[in-house]
Give the backbone structure.
Amino acid sequence: MLARKRNSLLTWLLEPFIPRRGQGHQPDFLLLASVGILLILGLFFLSSASSTAAFYKYGDSYFYVKQQLTHGLLFGLIIFYIAVRIDYQFYRKIAPVFLILSFILLSLVLITNLSNDYGTARSWIVFGSYSFQPSELVKLLFILFLAAWFERLGQRIKYFSSGTLPFLIILGILSFLIAWQPDIGTLLIIVLVALVMYWLAGASWRHLGAILALGAILFTILIKTAPYRLNRLVAWLNPNIDPEGIGWQIKQSIIAVGSGGWLGLGLGSSRQKSYLPQPANDSIFSIIAEEMGFIFCLFFIALFVFLVYRGFKIARNAPDVLAKLTALGISSWLAIQVLINIGGMLQVMPLTGVPLSFISLGGSNLVVTLAAVGIMTNISKFSSYEA
C-alpha cells in the first residue's frame, strides 16, 4: 500500500514533464529571439551603467555584472528551462497553492527577522549573502492563480457574490501586505495586471468601474499618508521646485536623456551615471539613452513592443482559457512594468522604483521574469500555429 502511494506521488510529480502524446509543436522562436537579444543587451548596458559604482565600492568594475550572471541569469535560465518543460495545464491543479504561497511570502517579509530594507521599502528576505524579493515572485504566482480561478468561474465572474466580491477580498489582502512593506511600484503593477485579467475574463463593466473608482480613492489615501510618496508626485509635476532634493533624480534623468541626442555619446561614455541614483537599477534607461541615443532607443523600445506583441499573439491562439489568461497576464505585466520604468525616466509618469525587465540589476526580477517567459513558451507549443 505504501509503495503504491509512493508511486502515485512520483507519477503526479513527473506528470507535468511528460509530453502530451500527439500534441505540441515548436515554440515561438520569435519570442525567444527577442528575449535573447534583450538579455545580451542588458549585460552590456549593466556593465556600463554599474562600472563606476562597482569600482568605487568593490574595486571591481564588473562586480555587478558578475553578480547578475551568477545570482540572476544562470539560475534564471535553469528555471526558464524547467518552466518550458512543465505542461502549463499542471498549474490548474495547484493554483490555490500559489495564492497561499503568495500570502506566506509577503507575510514573511513583515513578521520575521529574515527581512531587510533597501531605501524606504522592507521587501527583501536575506539568506547570508543572498537576497530575494518575494513580491517579484508574487507577480507571477498571482497571475497563475487568477488565470485558473477565472477559468473555473466562467460566466459567474459577472456576478458580484461569486466573482467581484471574492476578487476584491483577495486583491485587497494582497495589496495590504505589499503596501505595508511599502512597495507601491510593485503594488501598482500587480493591481493593474489583476484588473486587466479580470476585465479580459469577462467581468461586468459596472463592477470594473466601481473597483477603479475605489482604487483611485485608496491610492490617493496612500499618497497622502506618506510624505515621500507625495514628494515624488510633486517632483514629477515640477522637478524645479527642489532640483537638489526631491527633483534630483528626474532632473538628472532628463539631462542624461537629452545629452544622448540622436546617436548617443557611445557605450561607456555616460557622464550622468555618477549623479543618477540607482544607475544600474531604476535609472538604467536614462544611461542607455545618454550613451546610445534616440535612434537606438526607438529600436530598444520596439524590442519590448515586439515581445509583448508575441505574447498577445500566443494568447490569441491559445488552446484554452487557462492558457489565454496566463499569456495575457504575463504579457500585460511585462508591458506595464516597462511602461512604468521608462515613463518615470522620461517624466511621463511619477517615479515608482520598479526595475526595467531583462536589463536592470536584480536577480529576483530576472529569475521570475525568465520563469514567466518559460511558461509562455510552453503555452506557445500548444497554441494554434501562426507565424
